[in-house]
Amino acid sequence: MGAVEIAGFTECGWRDPGAAAEHARWCCDRLERGDILVLPHFPVISEEDRRFLTQVRQSGSAFVKNISYEPSSGRVRGFSRSGTDARALERVLRSYAEAVRAAAMELLAPYAPGLQTDLTSFRPIEERGRQLHGRSRNDLIHIDSFPTRPARGRRILRFFTNIHPDEPRVWITSQTFAELAARMAREAGLGADTARRRGLTRQLGDAASAALRGVGIKLVQRSCYDRFTLRFHDYLKDNQAFQRDCSKQRHEFPPASTWIAFTDAVPHAVLSGRYALEQTFFVPLESLIAPEMSPLRILEAIAGGALV
Ligand SMILES: O=C(O)CCC(=O)C(=O)O
Ligand SMILES: [Fe+2]
Q1: Is the pTM of this model over 0.90?
Q2: What is the CATH number of the domain that holds 174?
Q3: pLDDT tens digits, residue range 271-291?
Q4: Residue ranges making up the domain that contains 190
Q5: What are the Cα distances from residue 115, in Å, to 118, 154, 158, 240, 245?
């Protein structure tokens, strides 16, 4: 597991179109094995848009972690309205989302038919010394799982771009998901919840959510997989011995670089840096080169049964 530099891919696509299919497959394979792909110079947005973003302020609310953009609706949330041109912000985030999607379709061509665009974010706050509470902290090593958007076994693929003019964004990563899960999944509660939620509780839950749907309220329907990955995220952040003793690799992502990882399986934390853009995708299992290496299949093998 590590960071792998991709030299042959530019904003115009693969340098050697004849080898594009083979290179794209290789990239997917590396990602699925837990590596981070790094495009050392891949700024994605123009210098003018970059300067604009560094003037945008995040809302001061404690509930807002990043500025987020929903490509499907065009909604931007979490920015400070005073002094920000909301339409310009929407345009810049949309153009980032579109450019990243176009790059993903070529760089990771095997995923193109199934690639599902999720949210875009802009992260203007300095991460070093950031005062987030407990499980929201970004500087504690974790795997990603989203409380409001269940993955149901799909992979969480994220592109990050450092738009700071001169400082790197610094991450640490740890060992593979397979190793973490083998050591800690049971202790973190894999299996316990699966059994408890079957039967009556489950049926009551279904009836209640049907009733709420009837009056226009949508409940988040989490699979066993999602309930466990949320628990595992919390378990890792709460586990001081793990945070202190786990193997660590440090990565510095330079200004104008873009890096890509399956953050549902690469344990990661950010130590410092400000001004990053990020685009999330879901990749269905059918699109993967090695589905048996996905967190869903690894956890199902440990649990001894289906989790979605
Ligand atoms: O902002 C970053 O560099 C990573 C933060 C993170 O781990 C996350 O948003 O899940
Ligand atoms: Fe994360």
Answers
A1: yes
A2: 2.60.120
A3: 999 999 999 999 999 999 999
A4: 3-303
A5: 10, 10, 12, 36, 36
